[in-house]
Amino acid sequence: MKNVRGIRIANGVANALFERRPIVALESTVIAHGLPKPLNIETARACEQAVIAEGAVPATVGIVDGAAVIGLSEEEIEVFADASVPGGGSIEKVNPSNLAAVMVRCAWGATTVAATMGIAFEGGLRVFSTGGIGGVHRGANESFDISADLTALANMPMVCVCAGAKAILDLPKTRELLETLGIPVVGYGTEEFPAFYSRASGLEVDISVATADEAAEVAALHWQSGGRTAVLVCAPVPAQFELSANEVERAIRQAIEEAKRSEVRGKALTPFLLSQMERLTGGSTLEANRALLVNNAGVAARIAKSLKRFM
Q1: DSSP code for 10
Q2: On the chain, which terminus has fewer CB atoms closer than 10 Å, C or N?
Q3: Over the stretch 109-141, which tens digit does the pLDDT of each residue have?
């Protein structure tokens, strides 16, 4: 391991940085809190393999015994998949607001989109792949519940590859806030902002591209012309795993009602809603989630390779 500004970087990732080879950062929250076992570890491995297959280096990010790590080992990923720390304790869900607290306590933490981006950027990485970003929650006009993911995207010049925002959110308001924050939204093989489980939302992207080279060029020009935000590259879920928008909306409304009855809120809300979605769709959301995560990882690897040509 190599230490850079308090961050532990795995040897393989450190070597790739030194040799200027393409690297893709991956989050750990989806492993510890997003998918059930054994699908979580199988998906984590599949995402890393998708990056490797495209000629890039995967770097899964997490907090291990209080240290921010870029490039979790296979053994560490297994611990995240179990969601239980050796010797007792749980793996906390880490965003920028509680990141330092988890590190001070020498605890283990699974990093969200925002926390992963922050650590990866400090370590010198420029491309990140996830499933769906957080955004403006439904009812945010009363709750003020807006994900820190949007703040991270507004302040870190990285490429973030996703399948749009999580479907449980208020997608029109999320799309509007992305524009307000000056974050370019790039459709990768689509002219619409994907709706996570569904390929279309009726919302526009800023530009549609067909190749990784085109996506990389958009990012490079954005930063070279003074942009200081991330570039959000949106790849729709593979068609064979898509769920209909009506089916998804029915399940979301039922899940939200159950969350209200159970008084679930805060950081526990998203995992709760996703688990309810799984139940209400007979597992179809899990299949779609796995498929889009692996697809995004491959897209991110191709963009990471292309980005080297422009920077």
Answers
A1: -
A2: C
A3: 999 999 999 999 999 999 999 999 999 998 888
β-bridge partners, 208: 187
Q: What is the 3-state secondary structure (H, E, C) of 94-145?
A: ECCCCHHHHHHCCCCEEECHHHHHHHHHHCCCCEEECCCECCEECCHHHHCC
* Contact by Cβ (8 Å): 299, 44: no
Mean pLDDT, rounded, of the chain: 94
Identify each DSSP E strand in 15-78 by its residue range: 23-26, 57-64, 67-70
- Quote the pTM value: 0.94
Work out the number of other CB atoms within 10 angstroms of the CB of residue 181: 14
Select from 26, 85, 35 the least CA-distant residue to 58: 26
Whether 27 sits among the annotated catalytic residues: the reply is: yes
Domains of the chain: 2-307 (3.40.1790.10)
Alpha-carbon distances of 23 from 19, 41, 207, 241, 310, rounded to whole Å: 11, 20, 24, 27, 15
Evaluate the omega torsion of the peptide bond into residue 172 and state whether it is cis, within 30 degrees of 0.
no
- 48 vs 145: CA distance, rounded Å: 32
Tell me the C-alpha distance between 112 and 149, whole Å: 8
Is residue 166 part of the annotated active site? The answer reads yes
